[in-house]
Specification:
- Reversible hydration of carbon dioxide.
- Belongs to the alpha-carbonic anhydrase family.
- It catalyses: hydrogencarbonate + H(+) = CO2 + H2O.
- This protein is an alpha+beta fold.
- The protein has 2 domains: about 1-295 and about 325-350, Carbonic Anhydrase II, CATH 3.10.200.10; about 355-445.
- The chain contains 11 helices and 15 strands.
- The chain has helices at about 1-10, 50-55, 60-65, 170-180, 200-205, 240-250, 265-275, 280-285, 305-310, 330-350, 355-445; strands at about 70-75, 80, 85-90, 90-100, 105-115, 115-125, 135, 140-150, 155-165, 190-195, 210-215, 225-230, 235-240, 315-320, 325-330.
- The strands form 3 sheets. Strands 2, 3, 4, 5, 6, 8, 9, 10, 11, 12 and 13 form an 11-stranded mixed β-sheet that branches.
- Strand 11 and strand 12 (about 225-230) form a beta hairpin.
- The radius of gyration is 41 Å and the shape is rod-shaped.
- The protein starts with a helix and ends in a 9-residue tail after the last helix.
Length: about 450
């Protein structure tokens, strides 16, 4: 028992370090020399999402917050029309880095949100698989573009985009970056990349309807008040590019927190499921009380008898070499209950039938077909423009040839006329000479007189 208390003490007093979702914001400014200290959380069973609140007291909202992200996006979440968000990301040099929990791109850009003003793009990073879901359906990749408000830098906005896999060409703006993943294979590695164009990404964001809600960072410290703008349509990523990305990000997705913002956090729901009151839940996750602490009353339970029954902790010690692992069955029950509640919540959130999910998949396939058709149409238009240019060039060449032919004909005509005039002059002269000779002969003309 002393060992368990010591372990909890160390966990609750561990200090917080870099959060991948908040990197570059006021919560975790970028270090002067680069990444700085790597995150001290992960997505495993010990330091993963079910235990983020125990890593540091700063992470308490990860367990008790009422506006936690991600959520399941359904008909109760408003959708903003095209034009609500306008993005401008210029061509620029970028920094590609491995944070240990995700792959991040540091860059600059501007986003205008209707009614909220201007935001500065600080970085974007990847989650595999997606954290948010649409009608209970998740996607292989979710991209988070993290912004801070120009007027109030403590206000954070995140644009989230989903990616579906394809065997054909995907989203070129991002795929060209991901091909450099082998250069940042180890946590803490960074690489500078020059001259990247994000025009397609900017146009895609500006032309897509967006789910909008107020939630939280999806990594510690799970800060709330974050505006999420989530794309309603998935984009596409080549499966080979996805495998490259997954080699760095691995599994880095937080589980669904609630069906809609404002509902109880799934961790608290799991603790309630094993019979704890709100006060006990909050004391437990804040490290001030253990479940069924001896000598304390639990609910209407005098003397703590039922509390003792509930708090009977089966601490099993598993020896492996020189290491000892302490496993508390109560914590295991809590995690199991949390998982059950998560599944129940997820089932409750899916308000549509299986046909709706099939329709959603069909819509995505239609979107891909339409995009391919648009690309084919663009290629045909380009071919038609080139053909028109070639025809115009041919016409210009023919016109030039015709002008040259006309000039040549005029020159030939002029030469013929000059030759004809020369021949006529010669002929006239000859005729005159003949006529003169004939005249002299007829008159028998002798210029010096007749001689005897």
């Amino acid at each position: 028992m002393v060992l368990l208390f010591s372990l909890l003490f160390l966990i609750f007093h561990a200090r917080s370090v870099l959060s991948s979702c908040a990197h570059g914001t006021f919560l975790h400014p970028r270090a002067a020399g680069g990444i700085g200290e790597l995150p001290n959380f992960d997505y495993g069973p010990v330091r993963g999402p079910t235990n983020w609140h125990s890593i540091s007291r700063e992470n308490i909202l990860c367990a008790v917050g009422l506006q936690q992200s991600p959520i399941n996006l359904n008909g109760r979440i408003p959708i903003e029309p095209v034009g609500f968000v306008r993005s401008s990301i210029p061509r620029q040099d970028i920094l590609f880095e491995n944070l240990g929990t995700t792959a991040e791109v540091v860059l600059n850009g501007t986003t205008l949100v209707r009614g909220a003003g201007e935001f500065r793009l600080k970085q974007f990073h990847f989650h595999t698989p997606s954290e948010h879901r649409i009608l209970g359906q998740h996607f292989p990749v979710e991209l988070h573009l993290v912004h801070t408000s120009v007027a109030n830098p403590s206000q954070i906005a995140v644009i989230a985009l989903f990616f579906q896999l394809t065997s054909r060409g995907g989203f070129s703006d991002l795929e060209r970056i991901i091909t450099h993943v082998p250069r940042i294979s180890s946590p803490g590695q960074t690489v500078g990349l020059r001259g990247f164009d994000f025009g397609i990404l900017s146009r895609t964001i500006s032309s897509m309807p967006m789910f909008r809600y107020v939630g939280s960072l999806t990594t510690p410290p799970c800060t709330e008040g974050v505006t999420f703008l989530v794309g309603t349509q998935p984009l596409f990523m080549n499966v080979e590019i996805f495998n490259l990305l997954k080699g760095v990000t691995r599994f880095n997705s937080r589980f669904i927190q609630a069906d809609i913002p404002g509902r109880q956090n799934v961790l608290l729901s799991g603790l309630h499921n094993i019979g704890l009151t709100n006060q006990q839940c909050r004391r437990l996750v804040s490290g001030r009380e253990l479940i069924g602490k001896p000598g304390r009353r639990n609910g209407n339970n005098r003397g703590g008898r039922k509390g003792k029954n509930r708090q009977k902790e089966v601490v099993s010690t598993i020896a492996s070499g020189n290491s000892t692992q302490v496993v508390t069955s109560t914590v295991q029950q809590t995690v199991t209950s949390s998982n059950l509640v998560t599944e129940t919540t997820r089932n409750d959130q899916v308000t549509t039938t299986i046909s709706s999910v099939v329709a959603s998949q069909t819509a995505m396939e239609d979107y891909q077909r339409d995009r391919d058709d648009d690309r084919r149409d663009d290629r045909r238009d380009d071919d038609d423009r080139r053909d028109d240019d070639d025809r115009r060039d041919d016409d210009d060449r023919r016109d030039d040839d015709d002008r040259r032919d006309d000039d040549d004909r005029r020159d030939d005509d002029r030469q013929r006329q000059e030759q004809d005039q020369g021949r006529q002059t010669v002929q006239t002269t000859a005729n005159t000479a003949t006529a003169s000779a004939a005249f002299i002969q007829r008159r028998n003309y002798m210029p010096f007189g007749r001689q005897a």
